[in-house]
Specification:
This protein is 71% helix and 1% strand. The protein is mostly helical. Helix 11 runs antiparallel to helix 12 and helix 15 packs parallel to helix 17.
């Protein structure tokens, strides 16, 4: 849940900054290259004079292109020299020659060089034929599309605003958002009303609101508290403003130190995930100093919340230092929870290191992080993980739950190998055999359901425990193979039948096979049949109560009708959808026993 790193947040902010830089470049072009453009419908009342580059001017062609020319360009160590050389090389290129450059650019091995070259090519092509430039996006990876789309519409918005808006309207989803944002950032010479009209025309008013709100916040960044308030009080989803919020929070920290954590914690946003992400990025600066600040807080919930964020982030880089710091934390009641938090992060990021140092973790906090660490190792080498178990036996005593996690992880990737290892190393008398098979059988059922079923029914089914074959039936229904599950029902043992029938009924009712689900129970003994029919109508009433009501008269028996009517009336108490007349019709189908139960529930 909290995987977004500081780098991820900064990238979001950098993207917005990149747009602004692009806009400044285009404004410079506006001031040097004159052009006329047509106003879009309902956007610009008076014709706006802008720079124009005549796409029909015949430009000097360049020499034949080969990939070696790119290699020569990128031999320059200076980025500035590379860009200058690219500009010179592409200057005056015709549309056909730019196509040659584009074809050769795809052969450039180094990703960063290839993307730089393609951005310059697309910018030059946009000046000649922006529609063709948009088509070039199909040649690049989705990760590169956004950058090139921004480049195209930044240029296009200056060359011909009307055509740029029309082209953006033909884009869907995120692409339209990106195009609009490039247009609005570039054309900041237009009034707010004109830019808002463009956003409305493209049915993306929220994009306009985001840009305006962020611009106002950045203008107020010398007062971070005010800038923060602007973003929280606007009508824009805070998630879309993560980058700007992170920038403001960092400026705020520079002014008041780690007290900013408390300010953010107490702020009005209800999205705790956003708060968590931004505070994580802040504490990366100096987690030790951040923890010192939090230790001085008096409000317990705030102290607990913030200290957990800090130690989680600290554990990613130096778990040993984090453990040492929390060992003297006050109040001491928070220490066990903080230790567990550190150990869990340590187990996921450096499992071998956690295992080697498990003795420094409090004894009561060892088992869970060890389970996590060994399961991570088991993803790559389960047998090695099993061999390593002996190294922690003295630290935790019983390693059975750790072995369960190893086998469970192993079974996800190699169910047959995991099953064979379990059967070769545990006798049927060993209580752990059943636990391990419970971890293996669902994964084996996905790969070889018949083998999984045969293995399951070979195992004893002790009193008070269902046969393991019910796990196989459940997995088949979850995977949508209900027909195979039904075909295996006759072989399901008595103490597993209720579970097996229930899982099949759930799958059938959710698939709309309601009458078929009821018919399936006709072979059950009367005692089991009652429970089965009640389960079917419960599921039916929750998933499609209207359909169940309309089918009441067609149900196979008066007993099933009574059960169904009672279930509908109970459901209607929490989610009223039926009229009084419909409820009375359902009530008329209740037998005396169910009528008494419904009456007690209603009263």
């Amino acid at each position: 849940m909290f995987g977004l790193s500081k780098r991820g947040i900064v990238i979001a902010g950098t993207f917005a900054i990149g747009l602004v830089i692009g806009a400044l470049t285009v404004i410079a072009i506006q001031n040097t290259v004159p052009q006329k453009e047509h106003p879009p419908n309902g956007v610009v009342q008076d014709e706006v004079e802008q720079g124009a580059t005549k796409s029909d001017v015949r430009l000097t062609s360049v020499s034949p292109v080969d990939v070696g020319q790119f290699e020569e360009i990128f031999k320059h160590q200076s980025i500035t020299e590379q860009h200058t050389t690219l500009n010179i090389s592409l200057f005056g290129a015709t549309e056909e020659k730019l196509k040659d450059w584009w074809i050769q650019s795809k052969q450039v091995e180094r990703t960063s060089h290839r993307e730089i070259a393609q951005q310059f090519i697309v910018r030059n092509l946009t000046a000649l034929n922006p529609q063709r430039a948009v088509q070039y996006l199909d040649d690049v990876s989705p990760l590169q599309t956004d950058t090139l789309l921004t480049t195209i519409f930044t240029e296009w918005a200056v060359l011909n605003l009307y055509d740029a808006i029309e082209a953006a309207a033909n884009l869907a989803g995120a692409r339209r958002n990106i195009a609009l944002e490039a247009i609005l950032v570039t054309r900041d010479d237009l009034s707010e009303e004109e830019r808002r009209a463009i956003a409305i025309q493209l049915e993306r008013i929220e994009t306009y609101q985001k840009l305006i709100s962020e611009a106002k916040a950045i203008e107020s960044i010398s007062n971070p508290q005010e800038a923060w308030r602007i973003l929280l009080d606007d009508n824009v989803d805070d998630f879309l403003q993560m980058g700007t919020l992170a920038t403001i929070a960092e400026t705020w920290r520079e002014q008041i130190g780690f007290e900013v954590l408390s300010r953010i914690y107490r702020s009005r946003t209800e999205d705790y995930w956003i708060k968590w992400q931004i505070m994580e990025s802040i504490v990366q600066v100096d987690p030790a100093l951040a923890l010192d600040y939090v230790q001085g807080l008096t409000e317990e919930n705030e102290q607990s919340y913030l200290s957990n964020i800090i130690v989680r982030e600290w554990a990613r880089t130096d778990a040993l230092a984090a453990l040492a710091a929390v060992s003297t934390f006050e109040p001491s009641s928070l220490i066990p929870g903080l230790e567990e938090e550190i150990a869990e992060v340590w187990a996921r990021t450096k499992p071998y290191e956690l295992i080697e140092n498990i003795e420094i973790v409090s004894e009561e906090s060892r088992v869970s992080p060890l389970e996590t660490a060994f399961s991570y190792i088991a993803r790559e080498d389960p047998l090695r993980a099993i061999d390593m178990l002996s190294s922690v036996a003295n630290s935790v005593g019983n390693t059975s739950t750790i072995l369960n996690r190893i086998v469970d992880r192993w079974a996800m990737r190699q169910p047959e190998a995991a099953a064979d290892w379990v059967l070769n190393n545990f006798d049927q008398e060993d209580a752990q055999l059943r636990t391990l098979l419970e971890a293996v059988l669902p994964s084996l059922a996905r790969q070889d359901p018949i083998k999984a079923f045969e293995l399951a029914i070979e195992q004893p089914a002790p009193n008070q425990r269902s046969g393991l074959e019910s796990l196989v039936i459940r997995q088949l229904t979850r995977d949508g193979d209900v027909d195979l599950a039904i075909s295996l029902l006759p072989r399901v043992r008595e103490n597993a039948r209720a579970y097996a029938y229930g899982d099949i009924a759930y799958a059938m009712v959710n698939d709309g096979q309601t009458i078929e689900a009821l018919e399936l129970g006709s072979d059950l003994e009367p005692r089991q049949q009652e429970s089965y029919y009640q389960l079917v109508v419960q599921i039916w009433a929750r998933t499609d109560p209207t359909d169940l009501y309309e089918t009441l008269e067609d149900l196979p028996s008066s007993r099933v009708q009574s059960l169904a009517a009672a279930e509908l009336m109970w459901q209607n108490q929490t989610d009223p959808i039926f009229t009084d007349d419909q409820l009375e019709q359902a009530r008329s189908l209740l037998n005396s026993e169910d009528a008494a139960r419904v009456e007690r529930f209603e009263n």
